[in-house]
């Protein structure tokens, strides 16, 4: 049996740019035959109000709102996991972080003024992996590979050329984890990409093991659509 998973998705409860609620997101991916999703809401200066930004409790509560709402609709046949799409104050780069827990979000330092070297050390210490998202979009630069565990080589909102460049760069820099995700912000953006596995993913440990061992297939984007 094969299982499909979305690794890059957003909800209106947390990400201002999203146009799909957590409930709608889960229902849509169930309809599309997926076995689970990772909620990777934006963690950026557009995510938080000023009050939330500088209050740890309010910041974590707002960030986790979309994930917690989606989790309500998790079933035995459909898992909902927590991730992060992080963008520092410094530039427009985005980093997908997998293996994240609610407790880790609640105790993490304020990430926006940090930089990749320090952030990578923090999350790796807690067993997470760091993936550079859509590295060839305009105004994005390629990060130092030593602070990355992999690259998103297929992004549902990127062009064919941008995704092909991401794959070549990942291979050139010997970044072994190559992921794929729809970057879903709305109903019409659901199910564009993701991964296919032979074994079900139920936990963060399952996800990390499958990504690290390369035990998955990429769901290629249909560029004709």
Report on the structure:
By secondary structure, this protein is α/β, with parallel strands linked by helices. The chain has a single domain (3-219), classed as Metal-dependent hydrolases (TIM Barrel). The protein has helices at residues 22-31, 50-53, 56-71, 102-107, 116-125, 160-172, 204-213, and strands spanning 3-9, 36-39, 42-43, 79-86, 95-98, 129-132, 150-155, 177-181, 194-197, 217-219. Strands 1, 2, 3, 4, 5, 6, 7, 8, 9 and 10 form a ten-stranded mixed sheet that branches. β1, α1 (22-31) and β2 (36-39) form a beta-alpha-beta unit. α1 packs parallel to α3. The radius of gyration is 16 Å and the shape is globular. The model has no long low-confidence stretch (mean pLDDT 97).
What's the topology here?
Blueprint: E1 3-9, H1 22-31, E2 36-39, E3 42-43, H2 50-53, H3 56-71, E4 79-86, E5 95-98, H4 102-107, H5 116-125, E6 129-132, E7 150-155, H6 160-172, E8 177-181, E9 194-197, H7 204-213, E10 217-219
Helix pairs in contact: 1-3
Task: Fill in the CATH topology.
Answer: TIM Barrel
Task: Give the C-level CATH assignment.
Answer: Alpha Beta
End-to-end Cα distance, whole Å, is 27 Å
Helical percent range? 25-40%
Q: Tally of extended strands?
A: 10
Please indicate the percent range of residues in DSSP E strands (runs of 2 or more): 15-25%
Stretches with pLDDT under 50, minimum 5 residues: none
Order of helical and strand elements: EHEEHHEEHHEEHEEHE
> Major sheet: size, sense and barrel closure?
10 strands, mixed
Radius of gyration: 16 Å
Which architecture would the CATH scheme give at its second level?
A: Alpha-Beta Barrel
Count of domain modules: 1
CATH superfamily: Metal-dependent hydrolases
User: Would you tell me the overall average pLDDT?
Assistant: 97
The tally of helices reads 7
Structural class: alpha/beta
